[in-house]
Amino acid sequence: MGHKRRISIFNSIAHFRRLTQLLTSSQFHQTRALAPMVIVLALSSVAHAQGTIDFSGAQTLMGTFKTFAVYAGAVICFGGLIFAGIRMMSGRFQDAIPGLFGALFGAGVLGWGAGWIGSLTGQSM
Question: Whole-model pTM above 0.90?
């Protein structure tokens, strides 16, 4: 039995050496260089199937996202104004500028959020 075990170990070493030769061969390097292109081609064929997706429930989903954008914009705007107001009341007007920009960003989310979300699917809100 010990003799058979030794043969299998030598067999394993031979297989390992053959595998390392294959992995260092130029053919493997060429295959590895072509792998990203093969993956892209495979995924592009899947991407063409997107025309068959049914978007009938997208209006409700986009409405939910629009509501979230409105609330998130309001919270960001309100938080920025609170931050800036506290800084201004303490006399540090220079420290209030980031809060004012945060309030401006929140107003942008509040105002343009529906447009951004609607442009994702082409749905009108």
Answer: no
